[in-house]
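Hi there, hope your week has been kind to you so far. For a while now I've been wondering how a particular protein folds. I'm sending you its amino acid sequence along with the backbone structure tokens. Could you read through the record and tell me how the tokens relate to the sequence? Take your time with it, there's no hurry, and the full record follows here.
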Amino acid sequence: MKKLFLTILMILILAPIILADNLTNNIIILSKTETGTNETENQTTNLNSENQIKVGVYVLNLGKFDISTGVFTADFYLSLKCESVCPKQDFEFMNGRASSVDKIIDAPYEKFYRIQANLNSQVDLKKFPFDRQNIQIIIEDKKKTIEELEYLPDLEASGIDDSIAFTGWNIEDWKAETQIHRYEIYDENYSQYVFTIPISRIKINAIFKTFLPIIFIILVMLSSFILDPDKITTRLAMVGSALVASVMFHISLGNQIPPVGYLTFIDKFMVLTYFIILLSFVFNVFLLELYERKKDKLVQKLHRLTEFTMFGIVPIFYIILFIFFM
């Protein structure tokens, strides 16, 4: 049984490290070539009308992404190319405001800007701390409907600078597309250009900073099952300490994200942790009651039954959680 206990203990310790390594190896590396190919298949880039404008965005720098509000800053080039003389430009950012706009090229068939903007994107934390967010630059003309002006993505003039380092996040494949933004109340449609940069958290950091402390708290609590039944008060103290530590750690995790109207994955993980701690507490109280009633044989039988098997049962619950609720 001791060998089995040591084997399970090593699996619990090494599992996060192996999982982190596999997830890190599977991180999607930014590939402008592949993105351009995929988008070319789905988007038409040849101008065939005077009211069409090819739009390109080349991102130079990204500021810190505030997970609480979805706010970030972007420094980028914006190119507008026309088949005929470009109409007067009066675009705006639908998800923020530009703090500075410098016009670099002002030719009849091309406009070129360097823009710094304060933008925001919707935040989805359902899979926190393995969440994936979309940073977007959304452009729309203020006055001209889609019948008067239509944006087309210019993939050759779009991309992300290789020097960008987004602390705490992995930058994945960018995507440029256009969509129709309909205003039902005005019965009008506007052409909208959307440049999307998916970002995902660095998995190994999420595992070591979020799950590893809880794993060790659970291991310490499970080790109480090894103690003899005559040390039941010590066992209860260990379970109680694990509960307090788990609650405090959960509170610290909750302070990292804004209040949301749904359970994140880490919330589900902690709910399962509380459930396991509660079962352990109830079991030890039941053992204490049997011990005080002098039912030593039954106490010893339950002790032998759970002494090491809990180290195998508890990980199964967590594996089920990752498989079905991740």
Remarks:
- The CA atoms of residues 159 and 273 lie 44 Å apart.
- The chain has two domains: 2-21+204-325, 31-201.
- The chain is about 40% helix and 30% strand.
- The first helix runs from residue 2 to 25.
